[in-house]
Amino acid sequence: MIQHIEAGRSLAAGVISDLSATLSEQIGRGATGIHIDTSRVVEFDSKSLEALLDFNATAIERGLEFVLVRPSEVLATALSITGIDNELTLSDEIAAPPETDEQ
Between the CA atoms of 93, 50, 40 and 64, what dihedral angle is there, to the nearest 10 degrees? Predict the structure, then answer.
């Protein structure tokens, strides 16, 4: 199961803390991947970027896929300038939820 999370405009410390709790919760629920839609993110700092790297490391340690989906232009630029884009998986598309058989 891939868990989709939509980030708001900010990746401030409080938001990062909430994302961290969500990540831990989803790992506990058996998620196989975490996809965060970052298309609206315009407010972040170096600690926010560091936290994304930490999330990625945690996901890898647990055998999960961690993807930043549709990073906003400003976030994509920051990820590129810092080289973090080479360490994270980025995607322009939101993965479709798996089809279920309804009986």
Answer: 30
Contact 39, 67 (CB under 8 A): no
58-78 confidence digits (pLDDT tens) = 888 888 899 999 999 999 999
Phi/psi at 89 (5° precision): -90, 125
Task: Give the number of C-alpha atoms closer than 13 A to the C-alpha of residue 20, restricted to the C-beta side.
Answer: 14
- Which residues neighbour 68 within 8 Å (Cβ) at sequence distance 6 or greater? 36, 38, 52, 75, 79, 88, 89, 90, 91
| C-beta separation of 68 from 52 below 8 A | yes
Task: Point out which residues pair with 33 in neighbouring strands.
Answer: 2, 65
Give the integer Cα–Cα distance in Å for 37 and 20: 15
